[in-house]
Design brief:
Layout lengths: L1 H55 L14 H44 L6 H36 L12
Helix pairs in contact: 1-2
């Protein structure tokens, strides 16, 4: 008789254990499904931003293949491009500072020449015109150099083909 009571107690215990675990399992399943959905949306957002980044970076166009570029490749090219732009920005800032110093020196020299005691009114007019011409000539040469640098950068990034002739 003791064994029947023991078996009955075990059955009752199993019934309550199974009944109490069922809601917890569905609750865990809901939490897991919700977590999976949140994680999927997070991955989708990251993937979308990586695609946007690949469209923004010049060297990073997504291939027409089924898989396209890897995320690591896109991020690597983006880092390279950012470093290149930082270096270019620093170089251009230094050139701008140098150009400002040269303009100031040039202006001081012009004033010294035009106020020199040996300058007549006619020679001052001629020197002033000559200074203007030289200033324009220097600007044209600077723009040609900058234009060539930009063309080389465009070629390097594949935006302008290598066969494109340079205007002279």
């Amino acid at each position: 008789m003791l064994s029947y009571i023991l078996i009955f107690d075990i059955c009752v215990l199993m019934f309550f254990l199974c009944k109490s675990e069922a809601p917890r399992t569905t609750r865990d399943d809901k939490r897991r499904a919700q977590h999976n959905e949140v994680e999927r949306r997070r991955r989708d957002k990251i993937n979308n931003w990586i695609v946007q980044l690949s469209k923004t970076i010049p060297d990073c166009t997504i291939d027409a293949t089924k898989t396209g570029q890897s995320k690591g490749g896109i991020l690597s090219k983006a880092c390279d491009y950012i470093q290149e732009m930082r270096q270019s920005n620093l170089r251009l800032g230094e050139e701008l500072n140098s150009l400002d110093r040269l303009r100031l020196d040039n202006q001081l020299l012009r004033q010294q020449v035009l106020t020199a005691p040996f300058c007549t009114s006619q020679s001052k007019t001629f020197l002033f015109a000559l200074f203007q011409f030289l200033s324009l000539f220097i600007q044209v040469e600077e723009w040609k150099t900058k234009n060539q640098i930009l063309r080389n950068q465009l070629r390097q990034h594949g935006i302008v083909g290598a066969a494109t002739p340079d205007p002279q």
